[in-house]
Amino acid sequence: MTTNRPVFLEVWRIRLPIPGVVSILHRVSGVLMILAIPVMAALLASALSGPQGFAAAAAFLAHPLVKLALLLLGWALLHHLFAGIRYLIIDMGFGVDRPSARKSAWTALSAALVVAVIGGGVLL
Ligand code: HEM
């Protein structure tokens, strides 16, 4: 194995193609959802514990910063869903060529953003 491969570590000058951006965001969104599980479970437990616990959970969820976090989490789920379906389709051998891969990456990225903004506007 060669050991003198060029190394380019100027992260801010690396220009990822759009499928690369979607791929990184797919991983980030998966990790975000995993991290949210204990918080959501604690909120659910509190809400089900009685009227006081329910009021505490409702008050927590009404905070603007928490709403922002929920919007981010909603986007994470949507991005992960759309990008995940894209990967499953590509794994079946469809849309593997570069122009199609770019088009489907843009579609997944923008669909998640649009649905998250509309959903956030309606639900939050
Ligand atoms: C909503 C439906 C979902 C779909 C269609 C989906 C699809 C996928 C696919 C296809 C992969 C493999 C990606 C690859 O080949 O690199 C994946 C990875 C992963 N998923 Fe999901 N997923 C879904 C929901 C979730 C949820 C709810 C969570 C977390 C609570 C989650 C967490 C993860 C994580 C952590 C990975 C590994 C990410 C990585 O290593 O890049 N997924 N998902």
Instruction: Please tell me how large the radius of gyration is.
Output: 19 Å
Could you name the ranges where pLDDT drops below 50 across 5 or more consecutive residues? Answer: none
Question: How many structural domains does the protein architecture include?
Answer: 1
Helix content: over 70%
Bound molecules: protoporphyrin IX containing FE
As for the CATH topology, it is 3 helical TM bundles of succinate and fumarate reductases
Mean pLDDT, all residues: 95
Number of distinct helices: 4
The gross shape turns out to be elongated
Please tally the β strands and state the result: 0
The SSE string, one letter per element, is HHHH
Q: Quick one: CATH superfamily?
A: Fumarate reductase/succinate dehydrogenase, transmembrane subunit
Indicate the CATH architecture: Up-down Bundle
Quickly name the level 1 CATH class: Mainly Alpha
- What's the main sheet like? none
SS strand fraction: under 5%
Question: What structural class is derived from the secondary structure elements?
Answer: mainly alpha
Distance between the termini: 54 Å
